[in-house]
Task: inverse folding
C-alpha cells in the first residue's frame, strides 16, 4: 500500500508543472493578441486619416497643417477632364496607409505648396 502512495507526489508535481507550462503559453498568446489588436487599431486610424484627407481635397478644402499626411500626384495615369489622380499617405504611430483617388484639378496639395 505504501508503494502506491509513493507515486502520488510525482504525479502531483508533474500535473502542477503541466498547468504552469500551459499558463505561460496562454500568457504569451494573449500578449501577442493584444499587440496585434493595437497594431490593427493604429492601421485603421491611419486609413481613416487618409480617407478624411482625400475627402477634404475632393470637397475643395485645404488640408490641415501639422498632421502626418502627405500627398503627391500620380503621374502617367489619365484622369477625367478637370480632375487628377493623387496618392494620399497617412502615418499613425508605426502604421502607414496609402490610398489613391481623384481630386479636382485646382485642389491645393500641401506637399506641392499650392496649386499646380
Result:
Amino acid at each position: 500500500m505504501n508503494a502506491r502512495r509513493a507515486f502520488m507526489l510525482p504525479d502531483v508535481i508533474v500535473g502542477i508543472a503541466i498547468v504552469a507550462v500551459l499558463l505561460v503559453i496562454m500568457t504569451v498568446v494573449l500578449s501577442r493578441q493584444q499587440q496585434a489588436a493595437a497594431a490593427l487599431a493604429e492601421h485603421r486610424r491611419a486609413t481613416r486619416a487618409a480617407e478624411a484627407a482625400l475627402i477634404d481635397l475632393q470637397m475643395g478644402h485645404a488640408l490641415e497643417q501639422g498632421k502626418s499626411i502627405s500627398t503627391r500626384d500620380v503621374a502617367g495615369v489619365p484622369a477625367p477632364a478637370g480632375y487628377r489622380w493623387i496618392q494620399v499617405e497617412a502615418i499613425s504611430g508605426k502604421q502607414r496607409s496609402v490610398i489613391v483617388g481623384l481630386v479636382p484639378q485646382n485642389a491645393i496639395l500641401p506637399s506641392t505648396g499650392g496649386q499646380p
The chain has a mean pLDDT of 86. The chain has one domain: 2-104. The longest helix spans residues 8-58. The radius of gyration is 28 Å.
